[in-house]
Design a protein that fits this description.
The chain is an alpha+beta fold. Helix content is about 35%, strand content about 25%.
């Protein structure tokens, strides 16, 4: 069972009613953490953001059709007050409900339609190897992100590039991208850096991450780096549900070694996904 497709069906068939992440995950047959990661990889947004955007899009259609009572529309779509509805509506569309009702024109709005099931079907991937990853220390540059906003991650890789090979205590020539402090709503911290023997001697500009020993499924993304989102989609939507294994809230690693050509963006990137034992 594909948890993302099941989640979309659940949301689209019930999104006029009250919905929680826990309820959607239960219907989808996976944990909230698993669903948040799978949905984010497939749709580029969090589960509850999709729910919110779909509801506001349908509310916009009602207003453009001349709904007589804005408060009634707000209540119909899960908002407890006119103020809360107006704030969310303006945040998504840049105008107020009153302005849209007066215009009765949706052409300037970007409405969020139901996700197409065919568009989120992942491509098949090779079986991973299951390994126990050793503890390691990573020094680099970090930031806080969410499934709704990952644009800053490539900048971290650009920022670490001039330092690579010159980081105090650096071990080897492998570059790591690590996602950690992940939560069930899709927020996480990310660091791009290298393994070091210790954190001693590092200047304050460097972020530090201690990665514990953890059981991992190690996948290989082959080809251009721009396609790595499809590999993540296949891991979370296809391999994990079929494998019978559960993801752990550990540190997910992207390991880049000499098999990857940074000049062209082509090669092999290993993806280490923590598993429950």
């Amino acid at each position: 069972m594909d948890p993302v497709k099941t989640a979309i069906w659940c949301i689209e068939s019930r999104f006029t009613a009250e919905l929680t992440l826990e309820e959607i995950a239960e219907v989808s047959g996976v944990s909230r953490f698993h669903l948040s990661r799978a949905f984010g990889a497939a749709a580029g947004r969090s589960v509850m953001r999709y729910v919110r955007e779909r509801r506001l899009s349908e509310a916009a259609r009602q207003l453009a059709n001349g709904a007589p009572d804005i408060l009634s529309v707000a209540l119909d779509w899960g908002y407890g007050s006119h103020e809360a509805f107006t704030r969310a509506f303006r945040e998504q569309f840049g105008i107020t409900p009153e302005e849209l009702r007066a215009r009765r024109d949706l052409s300037s709005l970007v409405l969020v339609e139901s996700l197409n099931m065919h568009d989120i079907t992942p491509a098949p991937i090779a079986e991973p190897r299951i390994v126990t990853g050793k503890p390691l220390l990573i020094a680099g540059f970090s930031g806080h992100f969410s499934m709704d906003n990952t644009q800053g991650i490539p900048l971290l890789w650009q920022k670490i590039a001039p330092h690579f090979g010159h980081i105090p205590g650096q071990r080897g020539h492998v570059v790591y991208g690590a996602s950690y402090n992940c939560d069930e709503l899709g927020s996480f911290d990310y660091i791009a850096g290298a393994e070091v023997s210790s954190f001693g001697g590092l200047s304050e500009e460097f972020a530090r991450l201690s990665v514990p020993e953890q059981l991992c499924a190690v996948f290989e993304h082959r080809g251009h780096i721009t396609g790595i989102a499809q590999t993540f989609k296949a891991i979370w939507q296809d391999w994990l549900p079929k494998s019978g294994r559960e993801p752990a809230m550990g540190v997910k690693l992207e390991r880049v070694d000499e098999r990857f050509d940074g000049a062209t963006g082509n090669g092999i990137v290993e993806i280490w996904v923590p598993l429950k034992r």
